[in-house]
What we know:
By secondary structure, the chain is α+β, with helices and mostly antiparallel strands. The chain is 18% helix and 30% strand.
Amino acid sequence: MSDHNPERTIMVQPGGAPLTYTILVHGFTAAVALAGRADRPLVRFDLTLTVTHPGPGFPDDIAAVMSYEDIVEDLRRLCAEADVPGADYLADRAASLCLSHDKVRQVRVDVAVPAATREGMASGAGLTRARHGRDGTL
């Protein structure tokens, strides 16, 4: 049984908010072609996703739960882009990609870009985005 089965109901918490669980994708790194840099630095992504719980008695079936592999594949495609403007762009796009998955309710994205020189400072960006239901709940 998958989430697309009409018999599946979403479990809710007191007050009506959908029951969720957390997926962590921390320490994902990939070489990124940043605009204005000759090197391809290893950029680090840390993601915390709040995902809709599939309900009681869900089968041990990847279709019933959110797979972090889908998110990792999205990040790989994002990092393969050319002339990436910077950490803000990467954080924004990563959040949008995560929220494109129906099961993802909220995502926290932190991106760290190492300095171009040994003496320089690393840069980064972080943001939180959420999908809100019609009633304003996550």
